[in-house]
Amino acid sequence: MQRILAVDYGRRRIGLAVSDPLGLTSQGLDSLVVSSREEALRRLCDLIRRWGVVEILLGLPLRTDGREGPEAQEVRDFGEKLAARSGVRVTFWDERLTSREALRALHDMGKELRDRKEEVDRISATLLLQGYLASRSPGGGKE
DSSP label at 2? Predict the structure, then answer.
């Protein structure tokens, strides 16, 4: 198996995590700070080639009731462009709780939450990928 890249998409900052080659664990990467969608696509395609990514996991910002709003449609549009540009399959994954979990993790580590947006994005992408990998394991991640 080759690597999966998790993407926590934002217009200016993109959180990233990548799986190990066996698809068992996730590792956070430095977030991308971009000035345009075109720059985001170009830099992500560079990462996809560098890491040998065979699947992109793109966090889908659903509403609390599970419905899609305009933000989710923007992410879907971006995902379609990324798939077309990179030639790599994009899988959309519910990201509703990852930012909250990331903030809790930073708090538990005793870190100030101010000025930690990049860390929140990286941790969110890591949690997104961990959840996805667990869902694919025997038992669906259940103990």
Answer: -
In the chain, % of residues over pLDDT 90: 62
What are the pLDDT digits (tens) for 70-116?
999 999 999 999 999 999 999 999 887 666 665 566 556 666 555 56
Dist CA 78 CA 75 (whole Å)? 5
At residue 136, the pLDDT reads: 84
Report yes or no on 141 lying in a domain: no
Tell me the C-alpha distance between 110 and 95, whole Å. Answer: 24
Which residues lie below 8 Å from residue 88, measured CB to CB, with a gap of 6+? 48, 53, 54, 55, 56, 82
Summarize pLDDT for 63-72 with one digit per residue, the tens. 888 899 999 9
| Domain total in the chain | 1
Question: Is 82 a domain residue?
Answer: yes
Judge whether 130 lies within some domain: yes
**What's this model's pTM, rounded to 2 decimal places?**
0.85
Domain harbouring 74, CATH code: 3.30.420.140
User: Torsions phi, psi of 78, nearest 5?
Assistant: -60, -45
Question: Residue 93 is part of which domain span?
Answer: 3-134
| Residues 8, 124 contacting (CB under 8 angstroms) | yes
